[in-house]
Here is the input.
Amino acid sequence: MALSIACPNDAVMSIEDYLEYVLDEVDVSDIDAIAASAPALQSLGNNRDLVADIFNQNLKNFLAGGRTTQYSPQSFVIGGKRTDKKMFFVRGNVWCPIAQQAAMRALEERVFSYHIAHDHNFHFMTVGYYGPGYETDIYEYDHAKVQGYVDEPVELRFLERTGLPRGKVMLYRPSVDVHLQLPPAELSISLNLMVLEPQLQARDQYFFDVDAGRIAGLPYSAAVFQRNTLIQLAGHIGNARTAELLHRLAASDSNRRTRVAALDSMVRLAPPGVETVLCGHADDADTMVRTYARTALDAAEQPSALAHLRGGLGLSYRQEVSTLARKGLGEALH
Here is the structure.
């Protein structure tokens, strides 16, 4: 289960020292090594000037007409490192109480991702920095047993409801732990160590309906889906050269969803020979690719089946609100 790590200490660490420590001392591909580094994250959380200094710098940037470190409507990037072997960053998350009015409440719950059960395809460790913190319900599931379709049944096992008060450290396992946050009683801030590994980021992420035990949707802000939005848009406004490029992606890309998105966009563009391409994938080793190819080949006789499959695969051009402001992430990773 997601680990709650007790590591009380009074040490204080700067963001510069923390980043260097993780870069030099922590094997960020090893969850045990990340867990062992929890006291350092707590020491960073003990730095009571950390967030104030970030906000002060942003206020200076506003005054000077410069850029901010905004990452999403509720998040801000504090710093990060990228080398040939490691890529990680520290993020601050703001958690607000939500409005009592029904209309505003629904909007704010979406913005702050409250009551939305989801997993992550990366390691991340978090510490409560300010305020009472949110409460979170934690589940686990077996990623290997999931095919990845919207509305697919998933066995979710409830583990606990816990909180993230100031000083508490928690570590989440990629593609295992599922959690949903509940609004805090008062304004709260958490700090997250986010570890980016290409192999893990190629995995699917999901939203879950924990009551029904099903996949409720796909987080289009996740890295695995972000580039596919370009591929899907190409299926609406592409040309003959686009079809050639899509054909190459469908044949050679290592990610199954990218291959399916490329095939679907080819079907939408309908270039000469698209049926031959689909036939070539009808016996593909990957179940998702194979199912899409066969369903698309039968679309003339069963168009509703293709429409239903597209819905289950999330094959529509969409962007989550949280993808609209990501410039600060690139600036922080150096």
